[in-house]
Amino acid sequence: MQTATIIALAAYFILMLAIGLFAWRKSTEDSEGYLLGGRNLHPAVAALSAGASDMSGWLLLGLPGALYASGLIEAWIGIGLFVGAVANWFIVAPRLRKQTVEYGNALTIPQFLANRFPDRATALRVVSAIIIVIFFAVYSAAGLVGGGLLFESSFFDGEMMGMTPYMAGVLLTALVVLAYTMVGGFLAVSLTDFVQGCIMVVALVLMPLVVLFGQPSGTFDGALANVDPDFLNWTNGLTVIGFLSLVSWGLGYFGQPHIIVRFMAVREGGIPMARTIGLSWMFVALVGALGVGLAGRAYVEANGLALDNPETIFILLANTLFHPFVTGFLLAALLAAIMSTISSQLLVSSSSLTEDFYHLFLKKQASERELVTVGRVSVALVAVAAIVIASDPESGVLALVANAWAGFGAAFGPLIILSLTWKRMTGAGAVAGLVTGAAVVMAWIALGWNGAFLGGPGVYEIIPGFVAAWLAIWGVSLVTQQKKPIFAA
């Protein structure tokens, strides 16, 4: 690797650690500070933090890779995600910010659910915390796989301290994220997310433009002539089930704890501004990711290059087209996408282990300082589990993200929406929806029905999981409810 690239990456790592130290001095004295930044995030910070923690390495690896391999048909994932994000900001964000304060100043999603349904408080906290820790271990592993692929493709050849480049990348990514997350808590994660979100969107705008306009005239004409004409067809071979499986990614937004927790932390009255900033950022980022995949395919075809793993197209373009210092910036953008999500997921997992296990069962009288310490230890424990899962270099970023995204979307999506909007929902219904959504998703994956279903194409597991959870909540609540007004004000 060029010296200039190493310097750029080193500067990025130092900046992340410096932000962690700043946050450590500002907001780690008590649980509310460590887990929610004191509920005083600036709208811009909350918006970009939600976006950066949402998009992860799949935005620069998985989605461009899918476009590179399969063509414009994969853009329906991005469309579904954007529609889901719009609905999430309008339906969930303002209500969750208000109601988590009203229901006992809840610091975590499980705690909010327990306060909302006190008759099933313990069951909701335990079950939801278990789901959070399990799926976030998988989700965090997806980010670490991205770090491993980055090292394997760009950083060095041969072994380093007895490890493969892939495993060295996994461990270094995990260690840097652990450093600033454990030290600075939620404020560190949110501030680093803000910086990382800015870096990501600049990189995603810059790269497609350079690919498209930095080549000799006519370079892409010959390349496109050799590409299957269906590559740029939005609907080629698209079945109804295939379409629903792609756009249904948007359903996942309602149940992603690492995203919706930003709604809880934004300062009072800041949701409208955060919504505008967040959705604008997301639109530009998604268009840029689609551009990387499509323009990257044309570039590879035009220059006769070989690309074994489509999910590394961003890395190939960064290493091929730019000055080493700019390459360092672009690779830092990839690390930013990876690290922003991992840090958010580790912190949410930590908050559940701390508040919904340790504080609830082991030591109810624990001091605030002790809870912060337990939170830091919990971050490390979940990170170790993610490293173990990510140790398989054959893991696919998009596949791991898809499984975890579906698990959260089905388990928590209907639960969050209805708990915020339907007064007749009961605690028994909440537990039924939580368990049903998670169980259906895991069973669907285990049976392989997300790959092939009834002799046809697979059905994305979030669809049956989301529908089953919604019906479970509705049915059980109607059976167990008492007479109450139907909808929340």
UniProtKB/TrEMBL annotation:
It catalyses: L-proline(in) + Na(+)(in) = L-proline(out) + Na(+)(out). The chain crosses the membrane at residues 6-24, 75-93, 126-151, 163-187, 194-214, 234-255, 276-300, 312-338, 371-391, 397-420, 427-447, 459-479. Pfam families: SSF. GO terms for biological process: proline transport. GO terms for cellular component: plasma membrane. Belongs to the sodium:solute symporter (SSF) (TC 2.A.21) family. Catalyzes the sodium-dependent uptake of extracellular L-proline. This is Sodium/proline symporter. It comes from Aurantiacibacter aquimixticola. The gene is putP.
